[in-house]
């Protein structure tokens, strides 16, 4: 009898348990429906009093993208918006060495001159350069390499405003000086419109008006790099036999630090990884690398396109390790007649009496008399 009672009691328990679950599920369902009703009422009230379309419109209209990436060709031909970047020298030189394989430009490219100022700090002759560059904004760019600690104070209206590149300390006669020059070239190469690259110091001045210099440079078949064979102690006497066979003494050259090169040679300079370590290791004072590295390398790589002269005039007549510096009393019409005249050279394989376009070294005290020379049309800016 007991075997029949036990199963009956188990069945009752299962029945009661099922009823409990059904009741609990019903309560949850009712609670869910109530929440849905409340949510619907709140939604209807919100739409009625605030309008969902106006809310969406407000949100979308206040959104502004922080930067709009250019599309199409503009992305590749537009110069950098700022000269400040965080690339290392190795990354910068690699980026600057990019060269289009198709030589014909598919857009209306206006070639520019990149004026590259290598200086420790201020540019005391900046007002003179402002006069020289005025109204030619589409035909030039400016790049300044100064000591990293120097903070320029040019006003926003100046052509020199925000034209400093990320720089490092450079020392005369050492490889760091060539590093600075390559750094200037590499930053200038990022603007695809720059076709010529002119290295200047804070003591340099132009000798002619902008249009004359622009046409002279742009029409030149040759780049202006001094590269001559000096058999004496300050030429071949600085050669180190460890540079062979890459650099033979017969190709060892000396030249002015101040160069004017076209885009093709500028790329040759920044992409070099063969000559650089040789000069860095074996050309140290009393071998002054800034006088030998570029002239020797370019003679070996592209000697047939060098004019073998600089178009930046300096006066070595006083002797010493540095050229003469000119002061206020030197600035006369006779002085400029002497600097610009009395020269003969080859320009595009023809004889020319115009051989220099820039001159140095001019002290800060020369600014006022130089501006007077502009006003009197001796310097026709």
Summarize the structure in words.
The protein is elongated, with a radius of gyration of 36 Å. Strand 1, helix 5 and strand 2 form a beta-alpha-beta unit. The longest helix has 49 residues. Strands 2-1-3-5 form a four-stranded mixed β-sheet. The chain has a three-stranded mixed β-sheet with strand order 4-9-6. The chain starts with a helix and ends in a 6-residue tail after the last helix. Helix 4 crosses helix 6 and helix 6 crosses helix 8. With 381 residues, it is of the alpha/beta class.
Uncertain stretches: 1-15, 52-61
Structure annotation, total helices: 12
The neighbouring-strand order within the major sheet is: 2-1-3-5
Radius of gyration: 36 Å
| Strand segment tally | 9
Reading the helices and strands in chain order gives: HHHHEHEHEEHEHHHEHEEEH
Main sheet? 4 strands, mixed
Label the overall shape.
Answer: elongated
What proportion strand?
Answer: 5-15%
**Helicity range of the residues?**
25-40%
Average pLDDT across residues?
A: 88
Task: Give the class from helix and strand content and strand pairing.
Answer: alpha/beta
Measure the end-to-end span: 128 Å
